[in-house]
Amino acid sequence: MKIIVLGAGKVGKTLIKHMSNEDHDIIVVDQNATKVE
Questions:
Q1: What is the value of pTM for the model shown?
Q2: pLDDT tens-digit readout, 1-35
Q3: Parent domain of 31
Q4: What pLDDT is attached to residue 26?
Q5: pLDDT over threshold 80, residue 37
Q6: Under a CB-based contact definition with an 8 Å cutoff, are residues 24 and 5 in contact?
Q7: For residue 5, what are the contacts with CB-CB under 8 A and spacing of at least 6?
Q8: DSSP H helical ranges for the chain
Q9: Hey, CA dihedral for 35, 8, 13, 1, is it positive or negative?
Q10: Distance (Å, whole) CA 23 – CA 16
Q11: Number of domains within the chain
Q12: What's residue 3's pLDDT?
């Protein structure tokens, strides 16, 4: 599944962790580029 996460704050990071364990394609969008790396 392809997933887009808007924001890499507390909630976004939690979603990313859970979804990455399930082998999903994840795109992260945030105003702060260092959070996305």
A1: 0.73
A2: 999 999 999 999 999 999 988 888 999 999 988 87
A3: 2-35
A4: 93
A5: no
A6: no
A7: 12, 15, 16, 19, 26, 27, 28, 29
A8: 10-20, 33-36
A9: negative
A10: 11
A11: 1
A12: 93
**Spatial separation of the C-alpha atoms in residues 16 and 36, rounded to whole Å:** 11
Q: State the Cα–Cα distance between residues 15 and 8, nearest whole angstrom.
A: 9
How far from each other are the two terminal CA atoms of the chain, in whole angstroms?
Answer: 21
- Say if residues 8 and 36 touch (Cβ distance below 8 Å): yes
Which pair of tokens denotes residue 5?
Answer: 């996460």
- Which single residue is written with the structure tokens 């939690």? 14
Structure tokens at 37: 């790396």
Q: By C-alpha distance, which of 25, 34, 28, 23 is closest to 11?
A: 28
